[in-house]
Amino acid sequence: MKTRKNIYPKIFLCIGLIFITAISCERELSDEAEFATFSTTGEIFTDNFQGGLDYFPFGGSFAEAFSVDFNEKYLGSASMRFDIPQFGVSYGGATFPSLAPRDLSQYDALTFWAKASQGADINEIGFGINGETNNKFQVTMQNLPLTTVWTKYVIAIPDASKLNQEKGMFWYAEGAENSFDEGGYTFWIDELRFEKLETIAQPRPAIFNGQDVVQTAFIGSPITVTGLTQTFNLANGQNQTVSAAPSYFTFTSSDTDIAIVNELGLVSIIGIGTAEITAVLGGVAAEGTLTVNSVGDFQFAPTPTLDPSTVLSVFSDTYTNVPVDYYNGFWTPGSTTGSADFAINGDNILSYTNFNYVGTAMSSPTLDASSMTHFHLNMYVPDNVPSDFDFLISIEDWGANQIDNGGDDTRQQIFVDVSQVQPDTWITVDVPLTLTNKNNIGLIIYENINGSSLSNFYIDNVYFHQ
Fold first, then answer.
1. What letter would DSSP give residue 310?
2. Which of 4, 44, 181, 215 is most buried, with most CB under 10 Å away?
3. Model confidence over 289-330: pLDDT tens digits?
4. Do residues 127 and 139 make contact, with C-beta atoms less than 8 angstroms apart?
5. DSSP state, 423?
6. Nearest-5° Cα angle at 370, 364 to 373
7. What are the residues facing 49 on neighbouring strands?
8. Per-residue pLDDT tens for 11-51?
9. Model's pTM, two decimal places?
């Protein structure tokens, strides 16, 4: 098992999206009518805030990470200073929205100069988070490298024509990734503005990271279009890829009697059959497609019938679940597993995609299963079961110190091979719990082993019982 680092849960941003509906008036407008206009100011910070800005730290972040520094600057008299806490303490994260919407449609990039007190990288940085709920045009650059020398950075706008009423000027989220190379450091940003560079070319948008995805679907089971990116070639000859919000794209379904898709990239399955979802961004067809094979109504996992007093539930709608830190820790480096969890008629299902390994963590507190005798889960493999299917479930007890890899961990391994699985059918795994110590269970790990090519599957009713 590879070393695990959980980065994203501590930088988790709760970003909501809403629809804006325009209502027309029957009366014709007078020739003397004046339309509201918005500021076209591109400057954000040049010695001070320009055009009126606010500051909103993200929940759980170090609220005092940001300050204005009059000693360190690239140009002028001041810069933006960000003090990142030591590893394991907290993280720095905030958005800087404009007090009033701005028309940024004439620009093609967000630019700034930056340096750091040591070599590091910013986990996430970009624009489009406005401090409200309608972050329709959020853009994210991941793992932006910083050096100790002032350097100019460019973050391209996926489609500037969309930004005619934007408030989200700038945001970042950065947490020290380990105690060795990013423990407690500072970075500075100066000359932060939107610019018209006219050197950004060759747009190559993509959905599903440019892959042609085929997915079995069920009526009433939504699918989210993921892997939304825009790639440009910059003046330095390098290609830059940013994550772009769904509202930058225009989505199309080949058969709207089977599947429809809204501006938020949410595909609704309404009929039986096959439909293909494609997208366009700024007049350029996006690479990648989603082929939906709708097989009709969803087949639910068997409903558990055990007495709740004999069960410790990790994931089930039948029982009350114990506290769970996460069902997918997005472990790095190495894990490719994504989540496409869904609910039908109030029944929640864990859906894993692009699977290699993934974990469910219970550290706050660890799970005391000392009175339990068995472990249970239901698993569903859609479409087909690969001939090399080989699935491993590991249950980890973290010992008395309740620390992962703390020196007193024990583990039980449960193997599921191809002979136990059928496609498009829920199987039941119910095995004796043989751990010698089982009063500090902190982790359940699912893994592809021996070169298995399993990619997508569903899980429900994960629990320990007597």
1. G
2. 44
3. 999 999 899 899 999 999 999 999 999 999 999 999 999 988
4. yes
5. B
6. 120
7. 45
8. 333 333 322 233 233 345 445 545 458 999 999 999 999 98
9. 0.75
